[in-house]
Design goal:
single chain; Glutaredoxin; Glutathione S-transferase Yfyf (Class Pi), Chain A, domain 2; 2 domains; 8 helices; 6% strand
Length: 203
């Protein structure tokens, strides 16, 4: 197996943190996300969505989408159970990961894609009003997550999970998207200081 990634991109980082938490070592192949490479037919054959990361299996089959990759690796390596060990743990983690990913992370990414000059060739058309609106959406969703983290040690409960990985990467991506994280969010601040100190956060 190998993983095709771009180190500077947020979604490959989610996979690297996941690997580090699992203690797994899978070769990483760097892919430069320039327009020539993105538009190439060779890249489209690996992933028709033309995105990274991509897990290439030994038989040549490719699995893309961050959570799909992590779920596959979880099934091969059940401990630690980053997607949960019991039915209720799995449901809670799925719920909070979706809230972090489809709510908060998506809004941060939309602000980046529609406002950052580097994305002008890839996000066509860039809609500045949509980017600005998503800055506000991101902050609103982060307040909801903050409420959760004021009463829970980790996003989905008592143990670290894929939901925490998603939220950590999304919060760090706020800097690239030029969204300032409010330090008044006590739950997020306490949680962020703890999870960003984990060795896996440097993956």
């Amino acid at each position: 197996m190998k993983i095709i990634e771009t180190r500077a991109a947020p979604n490959p980082r989610r996979v690297r943190i996941f690997l580090a938490e699992k203690g797994l070592h899978i070769p990483l192949e760097e892919f430069e996300l320039n327009m020539d490479n993105i538009r190439s037919e060779e890249f489209a054959e690996l992933n028709p969505m033309r995105q990274v990361p991509i897990l290439v299996l030994d038989n040549g089959e490719c699995i893309s989408e961050t959570i799909a990759i992590c779920r596959y690796l979880e099934e091969l390596n059940l401990r630690p159970a980053l997607f949960g060990a019991t039915p209720i743990e799995k449901a809670r983690i799925e719920m909070w990961n979706r809230r972090a990913e489809l709510g908060f992370f998506f809004a941060v990414a939309q602000a980046f894609r529609h406002l950052h000059p580097r994305m002008s060739e890839r996000e066509v058309p860039q809609v500045r009003e949509w980017g600005e609106a998503n800055k506000e959406k991101a902050l609103q969703r982060l307040k909801i997550l903050d409420q959760r983290l004021q009463s829970s040690p980790f996003l989905a409960g008592d143990t670290y999970s894929i939901a925490d990985i998603t939220l950590l990467v999304a919060i760090d991506f706020m800097t690239t998207a030029r969204i300032e994280r409010p330090l008044s969010l006590a739950g997020v601040t306490r949680w962020y200081d703890e999870v960003s100190a984990r060795p896996s956060a440097r993956a």
